[in-house]
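Hi R.,

Here's the chain you asked about this morning:
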Amino acid sequence: MAEMLDLVGGNGWALLGAALAVILAGCGSAYGVGVAGQAACGVVTEDPGKFAQVLILQLLPGTQGIYGLLIAFVALSRYGLLGGGAMELTVAQGLMVLAACLPIGIVGLVSARHQGKTAVAAIGIVAKKPDQFGKAMLFPAMVETYAILALLISILALRTNCKKEIFRMTGLEKITNQIQEEAKASATQRLEAAQKEADAILAKAKEECAALEAEAAEKNAAMKVNYEGRIKSSAEQQRRTALLRAKQEIIADVIEEAYVALKEKDAQSYFLTMEKILQTYVLAEEGEIYFSSEDLARMPADFEKKIKAAAKAKGGSLTLKKEPKAIADGFILVYGGVEENCTLKALFDAKKDELQDKVNAILFS
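And here is the predicted structure, written out as tokens:
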């Protein structure tokens, strides 16, 4: 056993630990992302609008692979295994690096697989209830907690397990102290130079501020005149806007009052108006005419004859239907199954622009 450990060597065991961190965590993430992707494809096939939500859930199991890669980089770079200046680790030190890499490798493998299955269930929630996306994402995120804990343990182990022993072996503590002292001296010199430069900049800035103040004083008078002109122009625009709004409100009120007055006429005047409207909209075809239940009840006895006479004058015919329509006033004409809305409200809406122009001409010209 000891011969096999020595044969691999400390650097070999450290490399094995970095490889296991990447391989195990990567395999777990590949499985988790794969199963979540299958479920995501099914949802997107039915509703492409859920692509962004299911994509986020699919990517959650992929973080363990990133954690494993991160630990591998930390391990290899800390002991110089990435470059040409690799340290000669003892077998014990190599095994310590291997042990430090195992938590994220093993926990990453297991947690990524289970997180992938949880992500599949969460995608099912989003498919049926998209508004519950935030809650659905919490379930796979809870599995991630243990991968993060394993990541922290691996980082702490790499930072502490072999640090002091390697520093003693290579004399890096002395080199580090020397570098720190040189850095402090260099920093002091740079701070002094920066302070002198800052003082010069401040003096120049004060001179520029004085010049700007003088220039601003000259511009203030012109700006004041310009500002006053803009205020007057804005006030005039607001006055015109308010006047136009008031006119529009008056016109709308007049039209509404005309509509109400026409609707509330006595039966004789009301049906006289209906007769005039009918003469305008009747067609030279066979058709039907419908009234509301209220108008059917108060309709003059001779009005049906007037309806037929108006239709005959246009070369057509109309049949008065006794079944009431759910309308407030006016009537409905039906030709060939096509209804024409001749209620007062519909007629007023159709002639709204024309009525507004006429009222405006009467009131404000």
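One quick note: The longest strand covers residues 286-291.

Cheers,
M.
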